[in-house]
Amino acid sequence: MSEALVHVIDDDEAVRVSLAFLLEMADLPARTYGSAQAFLEVVPELQSGCIVTDVRMPGMSGLDLVNRLKLLGVSLPVIVITGHADVPLAVEAMRAGVADFLEKPFDDTALVASIRGALDLQVKAVRQATEREGFERMLATLSGREREVLHGVLAGKLNKTIAFELGISPRTVEVYRANVMSKTGAHSLSELVRIAMLAGF
Q: Does the predicted model carry a pTM greater than 0.90?
């Protein structure tokens, strides 16, 4: 189940069939579930995609599902569908971290646009996580002194200031700084700052 599926959760079969057809026409592969519990059974297999859930369902509500997914560490974006009376619930879901909510009756193009936006955000998040892991590995190769020099560089200090604070020569700071640039693969100061920030340095 590595494909970016749209997981549609609604206790109304007619709604499930309608949404599955709409998504198929939009070239968005979908899988439907009649309840939040049925969806939770496939959670261990989830890798990518987007979740579209009705907010009011018997058993476990869409909001309960959102909170359960957070506890399980599932980071797939969630779009909540809500009736007019359920808008406060949808707002609560937004506070819990859902990507979007749509009020019934919603425009088909609005739902498709919301799903595409959520999928794009997820692709970016996965790319950033991979990038961050790579940067963390790079920074882990720095020696203690190189890390100290990097801290000084990130604080905007001049080489001579860093040298004075560390009790070494400005020329030695330059060498350490060059090592840091080389080990991180940074080609400019701005790129080095970005790498350090992404890696949480």
A: no
Cβ atoms of residues 176 and 142 within 8 Å: no
Q: Which residues pair with 30 in a beta bridge?
A: 6
Task: Indicate the burial class of 164 (C-beta count within 10 angstroms; 0-12, 13-18, 19 or more).
Answer: middle
Structure tokens at 113: 């646009």
Q: Chunked in runs of 10, what are the mean pLDDT values of the chain (201 residues)?
A: 79 93 94 94 87 90 91 90 76 83 88 92 83 89 95 92 95 95 90 87 84
CATH of 141-198, one of 1.10.10.10, 1.10.472.10, 2.30.30.30, 3.40.50.720: 1.10.10.10
Look up residue 174 and give its two tokens: 């330059």
For helices 108-140 and 13-25, what crossing angle results, to 10°? 70
Delimit the CATH 3.40.50.2300 region(s) of the chain. 5-130
